[in-house]
Specification:
The complex is a heterodimer. By secondary structure, chain A is an alpha/beta fold. Helix content of chain A is about 45%, strand content about 20%. In chain A, helix 2 (about 35-45) runs parallel beside helix 3 (about 65-75). The longest helix of chain A is centred in the C-terminal third of the chain and has 15 residues, at about 110-125. Chain B has a single domain (about 5-155), classed as CheC-like (Chemotaxis protein chec, 3-Layer(aba) Sandwich), CATH 3.40.1550. Chain B is about 30% helix and about 25% strand. In chain B, strands 1, 2, 3, 4, 5, 6 and 7 form a seven-stranded antiparallel sheet that branches. Chain B contains four helices and eight strands, in the order αβββααββαβββ. Classes of the chains: A alpha/beta, B alpha+beta. Strand 5 (about 105) of chain A pairs antiparallel with strand 8 (about 175-180) of chain B.
Chain lengths: ~130, ~180
Amino acid sequence: MGNKTVLVIDDSLTIRQQVTMTLKSAGYGTVEACNGREGIDAVRSGLPIAIVICDVNMPVANGLEFLETIKGDAPAPPVPVVMLTTDGSPELIARAKRAGAKGWIVKPFQSDLLLSAVRRIVGDRGV
Amino acid sequence: MLSHTSNEERLEDVLATCVAELFADMQIKAERVNGDYAPPPLPDSLTAFCGFGSADLRGSITLLGSVALFSQIHPLPIDVTPRDLADWACEIVNQAVGRYRNRLLQYNLSLALGVPQSALAERVRLWSSLRSGNRPICFTIGRETLEIWLELVVKPGFCVAERSPNESTAGIVEGSMLFF
């Protein structure tokens, strides 16, 4: 499990640290990005990313813009993305689903819930 | 039809409930204060704010609390820096305004949110704080006080009470997860 890398995109340093601590405690590696633009760059860099945990409301490029951009990029099935956000609106959830998100978690998150989401999705892909 | 003030009171009540629920979910013991309280000491305080808007109203939510308060409720076991505290203050206001947005969907109010910002609160003068009789929503956390100021500009004629809560427009609950 230790070589599976999770890309954590959130403009909050505290949330990135919380998510990173949770994932590292379970043996995952992490890479961090502060906004959707940095997230796009990380995915395009070719890093072996197993899954992305992504906020929605961020400066520069938001989480939905990130999602729609990497979906448009992908010649192969894109990396799975779980949104981690304060927003629970059905309209945004539907937009994320259309853009290929695999899940939606509304903050504040519980560590065990986040880990179960990552394990379920990464496991399903057989990475 | 309710007056403008009643609109504001209703919207403030929704926010107070959201913040109380947020602290409960974060396992932070916070108690709402309705009477007199000791305001945060401005030279040693932080503020974080986030704007929002819709067709019917616009406004902002501002948190004001001491550095000691934000240190006390920071969620990570690390030696926090001023940057960490400012970031955490932003995240709290982000989660408060996000929850507020989610609750107002039940009133067919769909808010667009800004990006939270924080600042040192050496000289904070919110318009709402200058209006006679206006008071913030207050919580005590340990020995510290957190002020929450709601600024609202409501479209003339708009009335929240005319829109009955509509569960079908509500999103998913905070702390829960959906898979697609």
